[in-house]
Amino acid sequence: MLFTIGLTALALASAAFAQTVVVVGSAPTSGGGIFQYAPNNFKATNGTVITFRFSGAPGNHTVTQSTFSDPCNPRPGGFDSGWVFIPASPPLSATPEWNLTITDDSKPIWFYCKQILPSFHCSSGMIGAINAPATGDNTFAAFQANAKAFKGTPNQGEGGLVGIGASASAPVGPVPSGAHLYTAAPLPISSTLSISSGKAASTVTAPPMTSLASTPATSAPAKGSGASALSTSSLVAFMAVAVGFVLA
């Protein structure tokens, strides 16, 4: 009896601390190139912590929730890591990470990188799925095909820490010297700037953006929205993100 109780407690403890590590980006010479998540298709039960590790150098990527039918545009109400810039050199003193906890494993969770330089990362294959069906119409392979066929420019609006089926309690961190985290206001459901998705037209606002300046690797990320004191216009912030990626 005590042995059975012990095994049950051990199983519950293991489930509570279940974790999956996803590497964001890679080296240009690696299999799959720089535009990838590894792994990009996996299962995760409720309570599982998905750690997105931004170690691809050079890199400037996001983890942004989307939908199966519109893979390269952010889902209103979805999660978003913000842009994480990793320089080619020198090596960082610590690796920026983002922890996402699964809150509803009954439905698939689709995500992508919304960076558009030097080419559209999403349609180049930088997409991922959690709990995608293995059979039927909405498989990961079908999601890949939708992303590859995407037309238009990926929307640059941003979601928040809490998404649909998964959520984070803190922004990306640590952000060591040389790295940068760029974030924006939450993506509104409706707005004024028309973006073509190649499917039904959608409208969103390009929100004001902020930059979380590099911080010592020993500093813990602030809880909450992750907004910093360094504010700038969406155009200036986006150009910093884009130019940073190209120069890397």
From TrEMBL:
<protein>
    <submittedName>
        <fullName>Predicted protein</fullName>
    </submittedName>
</protein>
<dbReference type="InterPro" id="IPR052953">
    <property type="entry name" value="Ser-rich/MCO-related"/>
</dbReference>
<dbReference type="InterPro" id="IPR008972">
    <property type="entry name" value="Cupredoxin"/>
</dbReference>
<keyword id="KW-0732">Signal</keyword>
<feature type="signal peptide">
    <location>
        <begin position="1"/>
        <end position="18"/>
    </location>
</feature>
